[in-house]
Specification:
Elements lengths: L22 E13 L5 E5 L2 E5 L11 E4 L10 E3 L13 E2 L6 E9 L2 E10 L5 H12 L1 H18 L1
Parallel strand pairs: 3-8
Antiparallel strand pairs: 1-2, 1-7, 2-3, 4-5, 4-6, 7-8
Length: 159
């Protein structure tokens, strides 16, 4: 007689890819993803601003990913992927977070530099700080997008 396996796959918690000696300063910290005019993503926690750790830019194993560009109506573009097809994406185009996302993670220190290590991403449409971050992005979209493109081109030329 045939048997069936009814176990449900759970999404694994993000684990660091790099084997760096790090110190965890704070855990379960909530912040908002912001972007600078130079097109660099940051996490704002109250009045403090942190760089996002490089491991957090990976889309591997993440079901909800965001396109880095906005659509023609200046709206965020979210792709929901099947759990079995959560492969790595090009971070120039897709990220597991975007401007205005609420994030929960750890504040870590590596070589006396503090980073925000994202563990969970969600949208809270009633959060005024998230709304303000998204409005800043929309109002400065052309400048930010051009800065991001210029940075990418400069990195390619320097390789």
């Amino acid at each position: 007689m045939p048997t069936f396996n009814f176990t449900i796959e759970t999404k694994p918690e993000r684990k660091p890819k790099s084997n760096i000696n790090k110190t965890v300063k704070l855990t379960k910290v909530e912040g908002i993803v912001n972007i600078t005019l130079d097109g660099i993503y940051k996490v704002k926690v109250n009045k403090l601003i942190y760089d996002i750790h490089k491991d957090c830019y990976s889309c591997k194993g993440i079901t909800n990913i965001y396109k880095q560009e906005l659509d023609k109506h200046l709206q965020r573009i979210l792709y929901v992927r099947d759990v079995g097809y959560c492969e790595e994406c090009n971070p120039l185009h897709y990220l597991p977070f975007t401007v205005g996302c609420n994030v929960i993670g750890d504040i870590i220190s590596i070589n006396n530099k503090e980073y925000f290590y994202i563990k969970k991403v969600f949208l809270d449409f009633s959060d005024n700080k998230a709304h303000d971050a998204l409005e800043f992005y929309k109002n400065n979209y052309k400048v930010i997008n051009q800065s991001r493109i210029n940075r990418i081109l400069n990195e390619e030329l320097n390789e």
